[in-house]
Amino acid sequence: MTRVRPGDLLDGFMIGETLHSGGMAELFRVTYEGGRVDPGFSMVMKVPRMGGGEGAENLVGFEVELQMLQALQGPHVPRLVAAGDMARVPYIVMEYVPGRTLQQLLDELAPGTRAPPETVAKWGRELALAAHSLHLQNAVHLDLKPANAIMRPDGRCVLVDFGLSWHAHYPDLLAEEMRVAIGSPAWIAPEQVVGVRGDPRSDVFAIGVILYELATGELPFGVPSTTGGLRQRLWMDPTPPRARDASVPPWLQEIVLRCLEPEAAQRYASAAHLAMDLAHPSQVRVGERGLRTERTSWRTHLKRWIRAAGLHYRPSPRPVQRIDEVPIVMVAVPHEGATDATLYSLREAVKRSLGIRPGARLACVTVVAPGNPVASGSIDEAELHRHHMEQLRQWSRGIDLEGHQVSCHVLQDTDVSRALLAYARTNEVSLVVVGAPTHGLAMRRIVPTVPARIANEAPCSVLLVKQREPFQLLAGAQGA
């Protein structure tokens, strides 16, 4: 096998400086040679190590990464440019992503210091959104770690190194080749240890490991080197972050430990749910998990150990199917000028939507224009915000929220539809429930354009609710 070196010319690519030389592959900067049209971005060539004692997993991982980059698209993955002949010189040329990896950001922290909780939440949210973008394309990364997450200068996260990944539309080459735990020991999820691949909640677990390290400077499970050490995470939970560092806020520990639950069903239902909590820390419901300073009891570990003994490989539903089962439902609740019929109709529509989606999360949103008349007089901005938050909470009390997470959000904007659309896009909302009534007296003249614009521009499904008076429904029932 020909060895690629800086200065070589390979299939029209001029090999530049070496960016990275690892155990499985080498990375080189490359440019086009011979006047070919520039793609408009810098490029990098990845060449797997072959020969000289390297394992077959290098080649299998290369094949997996190539098929993943061909299938994936969007701002959270590098763009594929070209691929080399497997029989001659295998390589992948892709977009060079500017920025720093989370590992570099970790290494840049001064000894003994931690990233502020707000920064941890910001990085974690971008990582969760990037993972969710893969899950929406029926793919699971399965090797998320700080070195494989690049933070662009604009703050967005780009995922790299898909050699251990899984896609619902392609054969699982790694699972066909080996029936052992596949992944990086420090970040591998419990179900991966027993051979379960394709569950998007495995990526949620890995994000939890990353958040734990960002918050405490330590890995929750160390770096086990044996199968027995890996299997311990099937029943053991880590030392609570607040036991390592009392400055870790309870809301952050609640998020981290929920990600690290041994059973996938006890974690966040999707990466989008995780991203929403990281974006709105004040909305996180902190329970015993967030206040814990000791590990769970040995009795709990024993019960988990007994359950783990019976775990075996089983296929996972497609990621998109899992996401569809646990959507984020957003309801736009008018803060004034709304009739009882409006509020009643919206509440009934939300009840139906949640009733057919057992794992759904509800976000109640209202939009307040700056300088709203309610804010006049002695009510300051903070009091105004609390006033509208309490209105949202009272409205939501009429909904059976058993098994559903709910959060309330007050947005400020002079353009109601713009604010609602931005919220839906930012938080990966799956369904918007909106009514025909006004969102304030100032908007009464243009009410028809608000739901119409949302229906036309929303990145998801929209349920437009037509109001009906409660007594009209009752009269209709009596007549029947």
In short:
This protein is of the alpha/beta class and 480 residues long. It is built from 18 helices and 16 strands.
Biggest beta sheet attributes: 6 strands, antiparallel
Shape annotation: globular
- Residue fraction in strands: 15-25%
The helix count comes to: 18
Q: What's the mean pLDDT score?
A: 85
Structural class: alpha/beta
User: What's the total number of strands?
Assistant: 16
Structure report:
- There is one protein chain.
- The protein has 480 residues and is of the alpha/beta class.
- It is built from 18 helices and 16 strands.
- It has helices spanning 57-71, 102-107, 117-135, 173-177, 190-193, 201-216, 227-231, 241-244, 250-259, 271-279, 288-291, 298-309, 319-325, 340-355, 381-396, 416-426, 449-457, 470-479; strands spanning 9-10, 13-21, 25-32, 43-48, 80-83, 92-95, 100-101, 139-140, 149-151, 157-159, 166-167, 328-332, 361-368, 405-412, 431-435, 461-465.
- Strands 1-2-3-4-6-5 form a six-stranded antiparallel beta sheet, with helices on one face. A five-stranded parallel beta sheet has the order 14-13-12-15-16, sandwiched between helices.
- A hairpin with an 8-residue loop joins strand 5 (80-83) and strand 6.
- The chain is globular and about 75 Å long.
- The chain starts with 8 loop residues before the first strand and ends with a helix.
